[in-house]
Amino acid sequence: MSTELPFLAPSEAKKRKIAVMTSGGDAPGMNGAVRAVVRMAIAKGCDAFCIHEGYDGLVKGGDMIKKTEWDDVRGYLAEGGTLIGTARCAAFRERWGRLKAAKNLIEKGIDALIVCGGDGSLTGADLFRKEWPSLLAELVEKKELTAEQTEGHGNLNIVGLVGSIDNDMCSTDATIGCYSSLHRICDSVDCIADTAQSHQRAFVVEVMGRHCGWLALMSAISTGADFLFIPEVPPARDWKKGMCNIITEHRKMGKRTTIVIVAEGAQDLDLKKISPEDVRKLLAEELGLDTRVTTLGHVQRGGQPCAYDRMLSTLQGADAVNAVLEATPETPSPVISIIENKIVRNPLVQAVQLTQQVADTIARKEFDKALHLRDSEFAEYFKSYLITSSVDQPDLKLPEDKRMRVGIIHVGAPAGGMNAATRAAVSYCVGRGHTPVALYNGFSGLIRHHGDKPLGAVRELTWLDCVQWTSRGGSEIGTNRTLPSDNMDTVAYCMEHYKIDALLIVGGFEAFTALSELRQARATHPQLKIPMVILPATVSNNVPGTEYSLGSDTCLNALIEFCDTCRQSASSSRRRVFVIETQGGESGYVATIAGLSMGAMAVYTPEEGINIKMLDRDIDSLRAVFAKDKGQSRAGKIILRNEKASDTYTTEVIANIIRAEAKGRFEARVGIPGHFQQGKQPSPMDRIRGVRFGVKSLQHLETFFGKTPDEIAADPMSTAVIGIRGARLKFSPMETIERTETDWKHRRPKDEFWLGFKDLVDTLSGRRPPSEVHMHVPVLMPE
Ligand code: ADP
Hints:
Catalyzes the phosphorylation of D-fructose 6-phosphate to fructose 1,6-bisphosphate by ATP, the first committing step of glycolysis. By secondary structure, the protein is an alpha/beta fold. Helix 7 runs parallel beside helix 13, helix 11 packs antiparallel against helix 12 and helix 19 (589-598) packs parallel to helix 25. It is globular, with a radius of gyration of 28 Å.
């Protein structure tokens, strides 16, 4: 409990009443936000209310503003759309509407409102906050409320959560819903690409985004589209010729498909709309391609939220409640954002103003400014797309004497996004004039094929070789766990023999170990004095130096699909607990984040271990949950156990104990998704981050060009790990990471950023007693 704030015992205090609503266009993940707000508010001793049907419900009041209990939001995380409804409301744009809204809130004792919506909804919310004192005064004056009723409610706390599939809000990297929508688009374009491939067709795909090209850009990157139209960056004046040249070039090289992505708001430099039909005509008439148009429409809005949206909405919803409880009358209303991997609070008014500026800036044809007003990643992603999408870009080419031979190797288990990263690296190399060289089948491939055997495991890659790799799972150039120390002499020899000037290693903890070995072997093998980067890719997300490894998002999505399916099977039968075993090695990341994203009842990690007291307590809470359950929601419960959480309490043993203790009142089943967790196709996030990391890694390797081997070896950044750390993407020197940040014994970072999330899983599942939650923030306001 905070010492700064006066504390009164619950019986003496008036509970804080916090309301949540969804507004504007619906977006997958909104339900997760509602669930997190409701449960976090209750866990912190407040009353939670849901306002149904957006501002319409707020203006109408009555039953539309409902006190919401813990169990009311059960199962919300997995549901698409918004279960509490949303509506456009003209009345709220008028003062009389907001006057009614204020009255309705005061009558229920609510003075904190968490709004999940787009910039329109948040603009409305801030206006409401500004007017609040005058609205109350008017209501008292008109005798619609008494002065006593308004006492203690002089300020309205507003907290914004951005729910929008377009990802059109400035100040945040991602809005709740945008990645789910991107999943829908990528699934569709992947299907379209298959038929295009069969018939050698061209497809023009229209995706949503009237003012914001995020969905179009990211889907173009994720699917390796040939050309892209977005509102922020109109194509050059002679775009028709430019596009036809690029597509002709790709076809000449042997590409059988053509995909062009067009955002709804696509336009030319004179702000004249570019329609999918314009593009189709051009491709059909100028290039003679059999061209079809597909408009994806509302499928982009719907469906179950992806893992990221479930996690994001949960973290942000929980933080919104904290923001309400921590607010003082002076605190500006915040909007909860995410920058790279960090949840942050930004001033709501500024975020909305910046967002609205983008549209104005585009209207003034200041396109460059518009691009940079978007989140920090946007311009960078756009550049990466340009670099990797087209084969012939004379402006990018380096002079002959500055070109390198870049080795690319995969190490460890396959992970989603490995191929996307490799394709991006290859495309970048081709664009710059470097030679990309695949070292097939990891270090064992190198070692095995040396000597009197054919040197077939090393081959130069062409742009066409990997043109379709972005959407492919597994590892196209082969991967395994062999380390270079198996035969360092041969590895070093091969680097020299194949004239490798720089090395990109893609993989997980083994890849990290491999780079560490290569770095240390430089003392005895001067051929290894070349710049090297590890690009982390592992479902376990346990590579030191980064908070995100490619493949971990794909894994979470696969795991969630598995668990949702298990859970559903319980709804038609008996009360059931599934004990699901997750991968992750000695890191509980996958189990914890999956637990957060699916609302698991408990998560067992290697970091914490498992003991009998824990099991006892969890079985007690299962008994309590199933005793209360009146059959209205008989969906199963999930317990996630990381594969290495305990030697004694195996997944099977835990299920057996639960079964024995349940005494027939509920069932326990085991689920082991195993390699299913590697996912079939990489998720869009793993694809786009693969491309970004791939391009960045190559740019880093280029910085060493022209240096002598000794100069390279003397520079700590010549062996580096690329990663996301908090709110930044950065390279870190291997030597430091190895020495100070690596828990070698447990094969994970010493300091795992997500450890604190476990408390949140426990809080939101009800596993953590409210008394413990109360200790962390002031929960009760004085009367
Ligand atoms: P989004 O939140 O997705 O941008 P809208 O712009 O349609 O969607 O806004 C949703 C609702 O928010 C509107 O129907 C209206 O009730 C309210 N709203 C939007 N802009 C304002 C405003 N300037 N003042 C008051 N209310 C607004």
